[in-house]
Design a protein that fits this description.
Layout (H helix, E strand, L loop, with lengths): L2 E3 L1 H8 L3 H8 L3 H8 L8 H11 L3 H4 E3 L12
Antiparallel strand pairs: 1-2
Length: 77
């Protein structure tokens, strides 16, 4: 996967639970879990905007590009 979602890191920094965040941005906890666990194939701009609004962050704080030849933890091999 080339794009990683750092949602769990930002949520921990902001001390917000998945249930609270899902309610604030009006998506199901299951869909938030898909995002949080890097299982999503796409994200709507409206969802990204809502995440940034509620977490007081920028899209680049949530999304990270990892090249295919990098290790799973994001470091080069």
């Amino acid at each position: 996967m080339a794009i990683m979602i750092n949602l769990d890191v930002i949520m921990a920094q902001k001390k917000i639970s998945a249930g609270q965040l899902a309610e604030l941005i009006d998506i199901t906890p299951a869909n938030l879990s898909i995002l949080k666990n890097n299982k999503a194939k796409a994200i709507r701009f409206s969802t990204l905007e809502a995440l940034c609004r509620e977490l007081s962050c920028q899209p680049g704080d949530l999304l990270k590009y990892v090249s295919d030849d990098s290790a799973p933890d994001g470091t080069d091999t």
